[in-house]
Structures
1.
Amino acid sequence: MAVPLIGRIGVLILASTAFYAYVGQLVPQNEVQPPQETVLRTDLTTAEMVTTGRQIMDAKGLCFTCHTIGRSGALRFPDLAGIAGRVSERAPGVTDIEYFAQSLYEPDSFIVPGFNPGMPAINRPPIGLTDQEILCVIAYLQSLGGTPTVTMQTSHKYYTPAGAAPVAPGEAPANGAAPGQKAAPVAPAAAAPAKSAQLKPQAAHLGGAFTS
Ligand code: HEC
C-alpha cells in the first residue's frame, strides 16, 4: 500500500531536521577556545622538570625575548648563564629556590643591580605560567650553575602544593640564615621595607624551608 505523499514529505522533514540537529550538536559551541592548560604530572623527576622548564622558557614563558644565556657585554637584561651560582651575592642567606620564586612571582621586589625594572610577573597574564610550570622553570634555573633540587612537591613563599607542608611562618631559622638574623614576624605584602632590603628579613624563616 502506497504511503500518502504528505506522509512521505513529513518523514523527510523529520529525518532531515533530526540529521541537522545531530550534526549541529557535534560542532563546538564556542569556536574560540581558551588555550588548553596542560597539567604537568606531579611525579615528574627533578631531571624531567629541568627539561620541561627549559621548554617552557623557550615557548610559553617568553623568557628569551629578553634574557640570554651566555652573552656578555652591555646587556639590557641579566644574562642567565650560571645564575644559580650568583644567588648568594643577590640575596645572602636566601635559598636559590626562594630567590628564583621571588624573581618570577614578584620581580619588582628586588631589582638586579645595574638593571632596570621591567620583568613581568610570570604567574600573571599575559605570560601566566602555572605554579607547577614555575617549579619546572626554577629547576632549570637551578641547573644553570647549580644543582637542581626542586621537586613538584616543593613549597616556597608563593606556592604550597596540595598535601605539602606549608612554609611555616616563624619557623626556626636554620642553615641558610645569616648569623644574627632574627625570624621576622610574617607580614606579607604589608609595610614593605626598602626594595633592596626586602629579601633579607625573610631569609630567616625561609632559609629552613628546604632540606633536600
Ligand atoms: C620583558 C622582559 C623580560 C621577560 C619576558 C623576562 N624577564 Fe627576567 N628579568 C627582566 C629584567 C629587566 C630583569 C632585571 C630586573 C629585575 O631584577 O627585576 C630580570 C631578572 C630576572 C632574574 C634575576 C636575574 C639575576 O641576575 O639575579 C631571573 C632569574 C629572571 N629574570 C628569570 C626570568 C625567566 C625564567 C623568565 C621567563 C619565565 C623571564 N625572566 C622573563 C626582564 C624579563
Note: The mean pLDDT is 82.
2.
Amino acid sequence: MTLPKADSIPLAAVALATVVGLYFTIAGTFVGVSAEPDEAFASVAEAELFELMRAEFGGFLQPQMSGDWKLDALLAGRAVYEVQCVHCHGTDGRAKTPTAKLLTPPPRDFGLGIVKFTSTPVGLPATRADLLRTLIEGVPSTSMSSFKGLEVESLDAVANYAMYLLIRGAVWSNALEELQDSSASDAFEAAMLKQRQQFSLAIASWGRPDIPAAADSARGRELYFSAELGCVVCHQEDGSGGLVNAEDIWGVPMIARDLQQGVLRGGTSPADVYLRIRNGVKGTKMPPMAEHLEAEQIWDLVAFVHSMQEHE
Ligand code: HEC
Ligand code: HEC
C-alpha cells in the first residue's frame, strides 16, 4: 500500500470522516427509532423526578404533554424529526450523536431548554415562531441547513416537536436545580410552574420590530467604539471578531462573530440584527443591550454593523 502524499492527507481524512459519519448517520437513524435512552440517576430523588417527568411528557417514543401548551400533533412532529433531525440532535435532543461529534459548531443540545437566536428577552425561552424562523432560514455558515423545502405541515409539526424537547429539557434541568433543597414532587411542580410562566411571557413579548425610516450609522459607529458598551473588546475595531476566552453554556469555545461577513447566523436582515443586539445571543457572552440602549440607538448600531459588511 502506498501512503498518500502529505498534501492529500487532509482531504483523505475529510473523506474518511464523511464516510464514517454517514455510516453512523444511517445506523444512528435506525437505532434512534427503537432505542429509549438509558438514564443513570445520581440519587433516589432524581429517579423519582424522572418518573414524574415521564408521567407528564411520556417517553421519546410516545411523547405527550398536558395542559395549555397548545402543542398538538407531537407524534407527527416526531416522525419528521426522526427523518430530518435525529442524526444531529439525537432522539433525546441532547445532540450526543456520532455525527454531532464531527460538527463545528456542534448541533444544539435542547436539554437546557435554551437556544441562541430568539426574539424574546434574556431569561425567556424561544417561541414557536422563533423556531420556525430558524427552520426556514437555517443557521447560515453552520451545518444547520434551511428546511424550507419541507411541506408547511411538516415544518409546523417538527417545530412543535423541537418545542416539546426544549420545554421538557427546561423542566428537567430546572427541576434538578430545585432538587438541591426540596422533594422530587415539589421540585417538579416548581419547575413546571416556572416554565409555564416563562412561556406565557415569551409569547406575550413576541413581535418583530418595525424598521425605522432612518438610522444613522455614524452614531452607531460611536456606540460601537464606546468603552461603556465594549463591542470592540470582543469584535475588534474592524469587526473581525475572534476567540472569546470562555465557553458557552454548552461547553463550546466562544467566537465573537466576524461582523464583516455577509451572512450572520441569527439572520442578516435589519430586524434580525436588531433582535440580536437587543437580546444578545442566549447561552453566550454576547450581551443583551436592552437595558443600556434606546431602540433608536440599537437601530443606529444595526446600520453600522451593516456598513461593515458593505466595506468587506
Ligand atoms: C447536519 C446536522 C443538523 C441537522 C440535520 C439539523 N440540525 Fe439543527 N442545528 C445544527 C447545528 C450545528 C446547530 C447549531 C448552530 C449554532 O450553534 O449556531 C443547530 C441548531 C438548531 C436549533 C437552535 C438554533 C439556536 O437558536 O440556537 C434548532 C431549534 C434546531 N437546530 C432544530 C433542528 C430541527 C428541528 C432539525 C430537523 C428539521 C434540525 N435542527 C436538523 C445541526 C443540524
Ligand atoms: C463579551 C464579548 C462580546 C461583546 C462585548 C459583544 N459581543 Fe457581539 N458577539 C459575541 C459572541 C461570542 C457572538 C457569537 C455568539 C454565537 O452565536 O455563538 C456575538 C455575536 C454578535 C452578533 C450576531 C451575529 C450573528 O451571526 O447573528 C452581532 C450582530 C453582534 N455580536 C454585535 C455586537 C455589538 C453591536 C456589540 C456591542 C453593542 C457586541 N456585539 C458586543 C461577543 C460579544
Note: The CA atoms of residues 206 and 269 lie 17 Å apart.
